[in-house]
Design a protein that fits this description.
CATH class: Alpha Beta
Shape: globular
Oligomer: single chain
Mean pLDDT: 92
Strand order of the largest sheet: 1-2-3-4-5-6-8-7
Number of strands: 8
CATH topology: Aminopeptidase
Structural class: alpha+beta
Low-confidence stretches: none
Number of domains: 1
Largest sheet: 8 strands, mixed
CATH superfamily: Gcn5-related N-acetyltransferase (GNAT)
CATH architecture: 3-Layer(aba) Sandwich
Order of helices and strands: EEHHHEEEHEHEE
Helix content: 25-40%
Number of helices: 5
Radius of gyration: 16 Å
């Protein structure tokens, strides 16, 4: 059995903090549940209910408690308002790799938040946790996430055909990765 993990608070640029999930994040879960795409690619409950949202937050806590990952809420520093989520999943940690996933609410998209969070967690995973490979999967049509991955120094490795079921359909995914010995001009 994996050991419990402590989810730290990390600064993501001057304007955002990555922190553990809190029950006070239910408005973030509600906003994500109303999105057309987020519930398809995550375990965000849709339709929303307070009970389902509370269960979602407890599942985030359980990931850390069981040692399977580090789930973070992305919050603005000026008012602590949560605007998204990023998680480092350790399913394949015995093989020296971890998988990142992230989502942003519609009101926070296009502001560089996801990129700051992705760079922060990637640098932390590669250098502090000493994970040799961090990877993420992006649907080919999702140009915003493709740009975010590439801006954080991830290299596209290829197309995984029919990789994942999303919304009842097998979907292709692009594989992106950063290695611990990659040199990224923006730091990390």
């Amino acid at each position: 059995m994996a050991h419990p993990l402590t989810v730290p608070s990390l600064t993501a640029g001057a304007d955002f903090v990555l922190r553990p999930w809190e029950m006070s994040d239910l408005p973030l879960v509600r906003e994500a549940a109303e999105d057309d795409y987020i519930p398809l690619i995550t375990t965000i409950p849709s339709p929303y209910s307070d009970a389902a949202a509370q269960a979602f937050v407890r599942r985030q806590w359980n990931r850390a408690a069981t040692g399977t990952g580090y789930p973070f809420t992305i919050a603005r520093t000026r008012d602590r308002r949560p605007v998204g989520s990023i998680g480092l999943h350790l399913w394949d940690s015995a093989e020296g790799r971890a998988t990142l996933g992230f989502w942003m609410t519609a009101s926070a998209r296009g502001q560089g938040v996801a990129g700051a969070a992705l760079r922060t967690v990637t640098t932390w995973a590669l250098h502090e946790l000493r994970i040799p490979r961090v990877q993420l999967l992006v649907e080919p049509w999702n140009t915003a996430s493709v740009r975010t991955a590439e801006s954080a120094g991830y290299l596209r490795e290829g197309l995984l055909r029919g990789w994942q079921e999303i919304g009842g359909q097998r979907r292709d995914m692009l594989m992106y990765a950063r290695l611990s010995d990659d040199r990224f001009p923006g730091g990390g």
